[in-house]
């Protein structure tokens, strides 16, 4: 036996193990499919016993979307599952007992084909009890019709649902949880009008997110007589914003609205500091609402605005949530935009199960669509599959003294907006 | 041995293949629903890999344009939507890829080796960004919804594509065109002298391979249900076919087939069983395979055969 | 404030550049009436941005050019070395407060050793098994692909997938009337110095000459007593080290993520092909050309920047496959 022979055996063993494990997956799944057939023939018979509620999700653990699992919904669902289990589980009347929650997470590698396939695997083969939403607006748009086809509830997470709005009537199983352009842009334009902003420059990412927001903003601005100096798309992965900054400087705009993703937003902030570009107002898409934004830019965050928003002052429940996430994560891994709605989404599902006493999605969808729920963001209900704007703790946030203050709409604000924004430090 | 006489019968292999085909046709009626979905996905990878091998295998030109043709196919489904029957959309998806590949083939005649590879790689990114700019600034759409088709339809269409692809590969391989094509790989100048128009043959083969890739894209789009340029033109789909083909072993029709099937099944297993260490295990398997199995899985099979059946004095080093 | 800006008319073109006539805007802008000073400032700005961007591109590609030119390894994992370099800097800066420039001296050797080990135990093994150069090129690319997966997954274990970064020298400095961002100017300076030193090393020192000899004629070099395998490993390691330097410098101006590598690899591939595979001055030139073109297109329509890169790249491949300075 030479070295080569040995390595060869290792390789064979390695592959054999992988294949056997795969085979086990198949075998393990096989018995599960049989009761499904049995169930159908039994019809209205007594529900079989259950020991655990499985929440399955095709989440991007690797690839470009993976940042969101770690920074947005990820900390929330992991903490929620632990909390529910610490309480002993969710009480389901039809089983007459509390059922603990088990997470079953697959990695979709940020690939659409893999995501849709895994979603179907979760529903058809694993027959999980509930689904967690996949990451990103585009994936949500793909997942909503698929889940609807299989009669599975889907509570949205990271991603808007602008384009799904006209289809909502045909998607009774999909509920959009996060606030997006429809909720946020009117609040933004009100604030711009109120603060006498006369011209804006819009930079948007060449993606659903960017078009959703710029498409909603431009007509509203024109209606209110605010001049749009320019509106330009940037591709994902752009590595220099200085041309846009120079153009905005030349146009002497009062406000810059940057509807991009964390990478581009952070780059834009960084280059604005470097080039001392400081309009009266700067607003950015996702990324600015992360606590890590403040960790990176420190005092330079003062006056920077972003979509959101909530903070510890929003309500005692929100303050409590911050503390719990911080404890569970071991760091202040907070997303000041989505984590309250995401948590509320899970609470809604939990309460709907307890209210109706069943895990039948057909019943649950009607309960969620009609009932009102008491959640971390107060009383919440759904209208046409989405949460009305007034339920959210805020739409726009601004960094002030290291706190992401809610500044719009005015009645939910935790602080007055600082416009014009102060100069970058150190200039 | 008894088995040997059966295997020597000239009807054995055709009969075996027909049996396998019948088995696949019966699949949707006899298996669990997810098996069909998983098989469709495996078929997709097999089709992509075999299409890639159709051109790149014999010629030695490593193409990284698969994602471009696949993406065009996907987009065709998004653009045509419900307006035509699915089967027509699939053929349109194949045709548009065919046309693009024809043009690309014609203008890249001069490029050899790594330059052809890099050119095809750039093609995917160029189409992605042009498409993105076009969709956003001219058409003004975000992404496109694709009407969903049911699992069995997708499965059968993919099966049909695969059978057509296998037949094409088989007949090409056994014809004199196949010989000419593989002579490109070894010595292009000599190939020109045997009297076959190598240039045309090269372009046509490249375009045919794109035709199958495009069709696969269109049919898969109905499973994906929503596409945008980033999703459709993902560079990853360019790298997978050569990876899978080399994993299986080039130079044999069954190498790429086996490679794609095992590779995609392995990936499925890893992302569902070990989602948090999928990347590491997958990377290690890739490294080890390329280092210790330069001839792929087929090579492994041959080595095992030699070790355990072929006798004591077999030399395993290739 | 811009000196030229103060002299120019206040709002030059508010009506023309609106969202609704975006496509006309390119033409409008080019023919727009401006004062001469204003125009000059724009051109200088474009050039300055282009040079800075070009410096970054050059720095990220020199290592890849080296690895391909000499060792014939098309290293898809190149960007991962950049990522590792950047994360080492981030860790040292945020936890210990080490100056990023000192991190050059830390990250460089670490990546050199990493590169050496990877070549010694992987690419050399592959080379021994596959004597044919064409087959080696294909297989080495796939091997690099596997290595990319392994490095990235280890990085995810260590650093997670969320965004990281720090602020260093983020302010502007003036040279005459022209504004530079301090950290990017520093990157440009170090990019030029490092690439220059690297070039001098290859042309003026003994090991450098041995590497070049190994690249041009391996057999003759080995007859002359050059240990080819050692040279190839050295060369791969140097490439990884340059990538590490690039990572260190980039982390001053860009945010970090564990999946940041691949886009840099892609840009590096374009630059390397543009300049000529294996030519170090070619890569530098290619980097600057790409940077300036990127800067010009950014000014016209940033949505087309990446498309323009690829178009340029493909046209060049067709017209002159060996690159601008290729042999």
Short account of what is shown:
The complex is a heterotrimer of chains A (427), B (318) and C (327). Chain A is an alpha/beta fold.
Q: Strand share of the residues of chain C?
A: under 5%
Number of strands of chain A: 16
Mean pLDDT of chain C: 81
Structural class of chain A: alpha/beta
Describe the structure.
The complex is a heterotrimer of chains A (427), B (318) and C (327). Chain A is α/β, with parallel strands linked by helices and 427 residues long. Chain A contains 13 helices and 16 strands. Chain A has helices at residues 3-42, 66-71, 73-86, 112-125, 137-150, 181-194, 208-223, 242-251, 262-274, 291-297, 316-329, 339-356, 361-370, and strands spanning 53-59, 90-92, 97-99, 101-107, 130-132, 154-155, 174-175, 199-205, 227-234, 255-259, 281-284, 305-307, 373-375, 378-380, 396-400, 403-408. In chain A, strands 9-8-10-11-12-15-16 form a seven-stranded mixed sheet, sandwiched between helices. A three-stranded parallel sheet of chain A has the order 4-1-5, with helices on both faces. A two-stranded antiparallel sheet of chain A has the order 2-3. Residues 1-45 of chain A have low confidence and may be disordered. Chain B has 15 helices and two strands. Chain C is mainly α and 327 residues long. Helices cover 74% and strands 2% of the residues of chain C. Chain C is built from 13 helices and two strands; from the N terminus they run ααααααββααααααα. A two-stranded antiparallel ribbon of chain C has the order 1-2. Chain C is globular. Residues 1-36 of chain C have low confidence and may be disordered. Chains in contact: A-B, A-C, B-C. Chains A and C meet through helix 2, helix 7, strand 9, helix 8 and helix 9 of A and helix 3, helix 6, helix 7, helix 12 and helix 13 of C.
Protein topology:
The complex is a heterotrimer of chains A (427), B (318) and C (327).
Chain A: H1 3-42, E1 53-59, H2 66-71, H3 73-86, E2 90-92, E3 97-99, E4 101-107, H4 112-125, E5 130-132, H5 137-150, E6 154-155, E7 174-175, H6 181-194, E8 199-205, H7 208-223, E9 227-234, H8 242-251, E10 255-259, H9 262-274, E11 281-284, H10 291-297, E12 305-307, H11 316-329, H12 339-356, H13 361-370, E13 373-375, E14 378-380, E15 396-400, E16 403-408
Helix pairs in contact in A: 3-12, 4-5, 6-7, 12-13
Chain B: H1 2-8, H2 12-30, H3 33-59, H4 66-80, H5 86-107, H6 113-139, E1 144-145, H7 151-174, H8 176-186, H9 188-193, H10 198-224, E2 226-227, H11 229-232, H12 236-248, H13 254-273, H14 278-292, H15 296-308
Antiparallel strand pairs in B: 1-2
Chain C: H1 3-7, H2 22-30, H3 36-71, H4 78-96, H5 100-129, H6 133-159, E1 172-175, E2 178-181, H7 182-204, H8 206-216, H9 218-223, H10 228-253, H11 261-275, H12 280-300, H13 305-319
Antiparallel strand pairs in C: 1-2
Helix pairs in contact in C: 3-7, 3-10, 3-11, 3-12, 4-5, 4-6, 4-10, 4-11, 5-6, 5-10, 7-8, 7-10, 8-10, 11-12, 11-13, 12-13
């Amino acid at each position: 036996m030479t070295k080569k022979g040995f390595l060869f055996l290792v390789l064979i063993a390695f592959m054999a193990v992988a294949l056997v494990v795969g085979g086990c997956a198949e075998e393990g799944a096989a018995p599960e499919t049989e009761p499904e057939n049995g169930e159908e023939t039994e019809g209205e018979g007594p529900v079989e016993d259950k020991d655990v509620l499985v929440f399955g999700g095709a989440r991007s653990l690797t690839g470009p979307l993976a940042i969101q699992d770690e920074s947005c919904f990820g900390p929330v669902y992991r903490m929620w599952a632990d909390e529910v289990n610490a309480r002993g589980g969710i009480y389901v009347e039809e089983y007459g007992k509390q059922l603990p929650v088990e997470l079953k997470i697959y990695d979709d590698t940020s690939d659409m084909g893999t995501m849709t396939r895994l979603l179907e695997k979760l529903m058809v083969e694993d027959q999980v009890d509930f689904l967690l939403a996949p990451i990103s607006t585009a994936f949500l748009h793909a997942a909503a019709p698929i889940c609807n086809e299989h009669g599975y509830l889907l509570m949205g997470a990271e991603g808007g649902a602008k384009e799904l709005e006209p289809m909502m009537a045909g998607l009774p199983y999909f509920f959009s949880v996060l606030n997006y352009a429809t909720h946020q842009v009117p609040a933004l334009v009100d604030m711009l009008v109120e603060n006498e902003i006369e011209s804006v420059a819009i930079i948007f990412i060449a993606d659903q997110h960017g078009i959703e927001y710029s498409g909603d903003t431009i007509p509203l601005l024109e209606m209110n007589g605010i001049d749009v100096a320019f509106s330009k798309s940037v591709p994902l992965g752009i590595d220099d914003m200085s041309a846009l900054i120079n153009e905005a400087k030349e146009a002497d705009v009062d406000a810059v609205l940057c509807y991009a993703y964390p990478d581009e937003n952070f780059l834009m902030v960084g280059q604005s500091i470097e080039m001392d570009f400081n309009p009266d107002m700067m607003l950015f898409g996702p990324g600015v609402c992360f606590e890590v934004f403040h960790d990176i830019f420190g005092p330079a965050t003062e006056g920077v605005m972003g979509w959101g928003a909530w903070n510890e002052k929003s309500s005692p429940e929100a303050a409590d949530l911050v503390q719990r996430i911080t404890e569970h994560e071991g760091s202040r891994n907070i997303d000041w935009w989505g984590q309250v709605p995401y948590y509320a989404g899970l609470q809604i599902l939990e309460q709907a199960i307890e209210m109706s006493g069943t895990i039948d999605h057909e019943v649950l969808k009607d309960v969620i669509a009609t009932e009102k729920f008491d959640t971390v963001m107060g009383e919440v209900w759904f209208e046409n599959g989405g949460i009305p704007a007034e339920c959210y703790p805020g739409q726009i946030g601004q960094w002030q003294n290291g706190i992401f203050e809610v500044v719009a709409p005015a009645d939910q604000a935790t602080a007055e907006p600082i416009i014009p924004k102060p100069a970058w430090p150190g200039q | 041995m008894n088995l040997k006489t059966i295997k020597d019968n000239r009807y054995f292999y055709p009969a075996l293949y027909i049996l396998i085909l019948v088995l696949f046709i019966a699949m949707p009626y006899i298996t669990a629903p997810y098996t069909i979905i998983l098989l469709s996905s495996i078929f997709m990878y097999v089709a992509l890999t075999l299409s890639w091998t159709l051109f790149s295998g014999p010629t030695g030109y490593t193409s990284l344009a698969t994602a471009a043709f696949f993406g065009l196919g996907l987009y065709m489904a998004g653009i045509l939507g419900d307006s035509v029957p699915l089967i027509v959309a699939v053929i349109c998806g194949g045709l548009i890829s065919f046309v693009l590949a024809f043009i690309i083939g014609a203008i890249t005649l001069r490029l050899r080796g790594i330059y052809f590879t890099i050119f095809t790689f750039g093609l995917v990114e160029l189409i992605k960004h042009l498409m993105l700019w076009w969709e956003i600034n001219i058409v003004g759409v975000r992404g496109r919804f694709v009407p969903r088709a049911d699992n069995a339809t997708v499965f059968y269409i993919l099966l049909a594509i695969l059978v057509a692809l296998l037949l094409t590969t088989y007949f090409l391989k056994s014809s004199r065109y196949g010989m000419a094509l593989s002579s490109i790989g070894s010595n292009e100048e000599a190939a020109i002298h045997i009297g076959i128009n190598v240039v045309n043959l090269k372009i046509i083969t490249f375009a045919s391979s794109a035709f199958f890739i495009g069709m696969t894209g269109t049919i898969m789009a109905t499973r994906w249900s929503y596409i945008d340029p980033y999703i459709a033109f993902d560079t990853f789909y360019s790298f997978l076919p050569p990876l899978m083909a080399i994993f299986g072993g080039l130079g044999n029709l069954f190498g790429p087939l086996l490679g794609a099937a095992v590779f995609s099944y392995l990936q499925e297993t890893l992302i569902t069983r070990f989602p948090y260490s999928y990347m590491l295990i997958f990377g290690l398997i890739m490294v080890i395979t390329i280092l210790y199995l330069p001839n792929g899985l087929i090579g492994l099979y041959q080595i095992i055969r030699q070790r355990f059946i072929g006798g004591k004095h077999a030399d395993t080093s290739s | 404030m811009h000196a030229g800006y103060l002299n120019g008319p206040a709002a030059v073109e508010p009506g023309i550049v609106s969202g609704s006539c975006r496509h006309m805007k390119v033409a409008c802008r080019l023919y727009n009436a401006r004062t001469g000073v204003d125009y000059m400032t724009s051109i200088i700005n474009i050039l300055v941005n282009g040079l800075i961007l070009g410096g970054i591109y050059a720095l990220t590609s020199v290592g890849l050019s080296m690895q391909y030119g000499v060792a014939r390894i098309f290293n898809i994992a190149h960007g991962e070395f950049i990522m590792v370099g950047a994360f080492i800097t981030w860790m040292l800066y945020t936890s210990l407060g080490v100056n990023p420039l000192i991190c050059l001296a830390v990250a460089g050797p670490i990546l050199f050793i990493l590169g050496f080990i990877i070549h010694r135990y992987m690419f050399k093994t592959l080379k021994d098994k596959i004597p044919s150069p064409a087959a080696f090129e294909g297989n080495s690319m796939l091997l690099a692909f596997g290595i990319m997966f392994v490095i990235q997954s280890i990085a995810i274990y260590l650093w997670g997938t969320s965004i990281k970064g720090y602020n260093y020298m983020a302010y502007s400095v003036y040279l005459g009337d022209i504004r530079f961002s301090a950290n990017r100017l520093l990157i440009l300076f170090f990019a030029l110095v490092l690439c220059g030193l690297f070039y001098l090393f290859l042309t003026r020192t003994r090991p450098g000459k041995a590497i070049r000899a190994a690249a041009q004629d391996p057999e003759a070099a080995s007859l002359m007593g050059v240990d080819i395998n050692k040279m190839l490993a050295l060369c791969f390691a140097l490439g990884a080290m340059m990538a590490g330097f690039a990572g260190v410098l980039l982390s001053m101006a860009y945010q970090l993520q564990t999946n940041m590598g691949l886009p840099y690899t892609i840009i590096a591939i374009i630059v390397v092909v543009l300049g000529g595979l294996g030519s170090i001055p070619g890569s530098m030139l290619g980097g600057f050309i790409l940077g300036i073109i990127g800067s010009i297109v950014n000014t016209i329509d940033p949505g087309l920047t990446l498309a323009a890169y690829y178009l340029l790249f493909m046209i060049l491949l067709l017209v002159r496959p060996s690159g601008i300075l290729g042999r």
